[in-house]
Amino acid sequence: MKNFNFNLPTSIRYGWGRVNEIGKVTARYGKKCLLVTVKSFPAMKSLFEKVIKLCIEAGIEVIHFDGVIPNPTTDSINLATE
């Protein structure tokens, strides 16, 4: 195996109200966002809607794919590309 370096910097934002930063933070990376989630259910629907709204307010186009299943197959991943 050849030697290589891999760098994946991660920023974790944790705490009450931190979701309100999502538009500003996401806008640093471009103008389009693919939001990948499980099927919306009542407890999460308002959170998904809030994230989408905050991103749109920051000038970000959001594509929401809610077809994720546990242990996704290549078929389910291919659905996200359609």
UniProtKB/TrEMBL annotation:
Q: Which UniProt keywords apply?
A: Oxidoreductase
Q: Which InterPro entries does its entry note?
A: ADH_Fe/GldA (IPR001670)
User: What one GO molecular function would you report for this record?
Assistant: oxidoreductase activity
Which part of the chain is the Alcohol dehydrogenase iron-type/glycerol dehydrogenase GldA domain?
9-80
The name this protein carries in UniProt is Alcohol dehydrogenase iron-type/glycerol dehydrogenase GldA domain-containing protein
